[in-house]
Amino acid sequence: MKLPAPRELLIPAVILAFGLLAPVLAPSYRGQMAFLWVMIVFALTWDLLGGQMGYNSFGNILFFGVGMYACVVVQRDLHLGYYAALFLGMGVGALLAVTVGALIGSGLLGLRGHYFAIGTLGIGIAAGELASGWDFVGGGGGMVPPLFPGAVGGRETFFYYLSFALAVVTFPVLRFLYAGRFGLAINAIRDDEDKAEAMGLRTTRYKTTAWCVSAFFLGLMGGVVGNLVGFIDPREVAFAGSTFGVWMVLMAILGGKGTLWGPVLGAAIFHVTKELFWTYLLGWQRVALGLLIVVIVVFFPRGILGWARERWPERFGQRVDEPASEAGR
Q1: Distance (Å, whole) CA 206 – CA 197
Q2: In whole angstroms, how large is the CA radius of gyration of the chain?
């Protein structure tokens, strides 16, 4: 097994050091920094389908909301300690999200192109409307998770490190999957699904598996965000397709979809920019965010890493042939 070069470990080491020390260095921004790791998981899990497999989904927010509601219901109805109920609820939420993904994936993933995108958009909207009318989960009035038992300020620190841990786990798991047969299969689906099927690849199975992997991590993160925010609104938090659902797409595109580090880079840039808009452009922040979305789509259609790969291909391990006039000298 080939060990990574020290240079390849530099960026992960810097990110780990930043993640561990950030709450100590900037305690006033623990909540915002916690959402940075949430955004990274959003972008990574969306890119699993939209970038690596070529299926642009607007329905991943479904799994996030299912995991959030399942976690808080377990915390509410089971008379356990706070931490036991939280981690049990996160596990239940992840399993339920995977189950939902498996049930609807085999049918919905039979669609392609814009039909699939519209279909996934519909399930996210339908889930929000269903939760709004279901009294068991609070209906339109939402739900409030149990009160955190720690000291003042401890809730933000605890859920910061929990979201950080989930992001740290998500990245190497996806890297492992992309490096093996699974990664080759979903890339083949992206490049030409008909040819992949003709060669005997069971595309529906791989597509459903990819969606379930995405659902698992989003279900876990849903429980974290529900407790971090402290209130679950069906349309604005749990199944917030117009915000979280769109942002996860934009972050992956901004960084460079179909790459491993692109969604991480895009999530970091997008989240920091968004927080600056909300801080310094209050009242105009949504206008500025809309303009940012236009800039991303128009000027970075292949993402920052895609642009950098075209500009400096040799730095990304791509061979650049010399011009014929120079080669003949």
Answers
A1: 11
A2: 21
Q: Residue length, the chain?
A: 329
Residue-wise over 207-219: b if at least 16 C-beta within 10 A, else e? bbbbbbbbbbbbb
Structure tokens at 54: 């070529």
The reported pLDDT for the residue numbered 328 is 46
Q: In this structure, how many other beta carbons lie within 10 angstroms of the beta carbon of residue 143?
A: 22
DSSP-assigned beta bridge partners for residue 232 = 143
Q: Which residues, 6 or more positions from 33, have their beta carbon under 8 angstroms from its beta carbon?
A: 22, 23, 26, 160
Q: What's the pLDDT at 325?
A: 46
pTM of the entire structure? 0.91
CA 103 to centroid of chain Cα atoms: 21
For 125-148, give the DSSP string.
HHHHHHHHT-GGGTGGG-B-PPPP
176 contacts: CB under 8 Å, gap ≥ 6: none
What secondary structure does DSSP assign to 284-299, as a single string? THHHHHHHHHHHHHHH
* Count of CB atoms situated within 10 Å of the CB of 262: 27
Average pLDDT over residues 31-49: 95
